[in-house]
Structure formats: C-alpha cells, structure tokens
Design brief:
two-stranded parallel sheet
Length: about 130
C-alpha cells in the first residue's frame, strides 16, 4: 500500500495562506512585547482572533459531526506557536519531486495507491 502524497509543498497556496495567518499571530505577539521564547511557547488562545480562525477555517468541515470538529479545535488551540512556525518552515523546504520520479524510484510490485479525494491542501494533480 502506498499512501499518496504531493511531490512538494513549496508554493502551495493553502500552506502559503496558513503561513501568512500564523505569521500574523507571531507579529501580534511581537507587538505586545513578547520575547522570542514567550512567542514560541504561546498558544493560539493567547492571540486575539486566532481561536475564531481555527474554528472557522482549520477545523471546519461540512460533513464531519460538530462534536468531532469541536474536539479537534480544542486540541488544536493548545499547539504551541513554535510548532506551527516550525512545521510550516519545514513544509516550505519539503520537495520529493526528484526522489519520487518513477525513473528514479520505480515500483516493481502490484501496489494499491490511496489518496484523499477531497484534500483541500494538496490538489489531485499535485498528488503522486
């Protein structure tokens, strides 16, 4: 089984928008005079509007039960800002285009490939 993924996260419009939002959270904390360490250990609950953004855009799903999205949101708002910033920085550097090219890494066995049909971050054409 091969769980499909995108070749690269570079220049992904959804991740770029998320980077912009998280950078705004960071800027808000800087403006409030927080130190780098305080910012890294801050949670979205400490940034005006961040929890609303998470509830409305990050954990919202038409098909999922509200109880499920509320649970995800309650856990998401506890994630430290350093994690948000670090993951987004790492994703910006993530590029498997060459490594996953069939001529470089051919698959010689019957393979079931799974991918997310409703993935809003990595479009169908971006997935391997």
């Amino acid at each position: 089984v091969l769980v499909s993924t995108a070749l690269s996260a570079r220049n992904n419009p959804v991740l770029n928008e998320l980077q912009q939002v998280v950078t705004e959270w960071e800027t808000t904390l800087i403006t409030e005079g927080k130190t780098t360490e305080e910012i890294w250990f801050s949670q979205p609950t400490q940034v005006n509007g961040a929890v609303d953004w998470i509830n409305n855009y990050w954990t919202f799903d038409y098909l999922a039960p509200v109880s499920f999205t509320q649970q995800v949101a309650s856990e998401t708002v506890q994630v430290k800002l350093a994690t948000w910033l670090g993951v987004l920085e790492a994703l910006d550097d993530w590029d498997n285009t060459e490594r996953l090219t069939p001529s470089v890494t051919p698959i010689h066995a019957p393979t079931l490939v799974l991918w997310a049909a409703q993935d809003v971050i990595f479009e169908y054409d971006d997935q391997v």
